[in-house]
Amino acid sequence: MMKEGWVKKELASWVEIMNEVHMFVASDDAHPHREKICRMREKISEKIKEVGYVPDTSNVLLFVDQREREEKLQYHSEKLALAFAVLNTHPGSTIQIKKNIRMCGDCHLPIKFVAKVMERRIIVRNINRFHHFSDGSCSCGDYW
Questions:
Q1: Domain DYW: where (predicted)?
Q2: Each residue of 108-135: pLDDT tens digit?
Q3: What SS3 string covers 14-72?
Q4: What pTM was estimated for this model as a whole?
Q5: Rounded to an integer, what distance in angstroms lies between the CA atom of residue 94 and that of residue 86?
């Protein structure tokens, strides 16, 4: 019955801030702080591009131009959760994100850059493993 569509898994990421869980889905436009989150996501994206991050658009499975592919990547749930956490936690504090599916390559790579540029420890638990990002590297050794 599950395979026939009776039950669907919502692809999401969660972050807990001050004992409150905030859930994000890809291209989330329902969060009450969506405008602040999008502005922070854009700032983060600009910062990491300055130090060498190049979006990997091979993860976008749509037939759209390069600019649209890059735009789609920016709205993955873990990137939204990360932007929200940066907005709502103290500089230097550890960020923990939970994800119910495997993280794509273009979420893994920018989180490494964010950890380095913003001097944060970022922990992402996905369906396969824990990823501990610190100083531009990940505990998985890029075997995500």
A1: 52-144
A2: 999 999 999 999 999 999 988 999 999 9
A3: EEEECCEEEEEECCCCCCCCHHHHHHHHHHHHHHHHHCCCCCCHHHCCCCCCHHHHHHH
A4: 0.85
A5: 10
